[in-house]
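FIELD: query
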Amino acid sequence: MNTTEQKNLHACIEACEEAIHASQACAAADIREGNGHCALVNLDCADICTATMNALARGSEHHGDFCRLCAHICRTCAAACAMHAKEHAHCALCQQACEKCAMECDKHAKESDI
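FIELD: result
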């Protein structure tokens, strides 16, 4: 793996980690506020981002499959949060983190090995 590939891989891992934290925080805030706007999709997003980050870190030959699903779920989460981003800072932060993660995952979605 060359230096550019390592940087791209590291950027995707970091984006996944940011999306994990943002989506968990958004879910927790929604639950505490009693509105549950995005909580379920946030938790799905955190789970797939965690799995994707782990697959990337261990060099799984299936990382492209994980990235493809992660990008899809992150976009779904970002769209859900966008509906509430003006009223809730946690939704705005989650939307931003998930959009970034989807963009980074797209770079690896067609790869079959690292």
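FIELD: remark
The chain has a mean pLDDT of 93.
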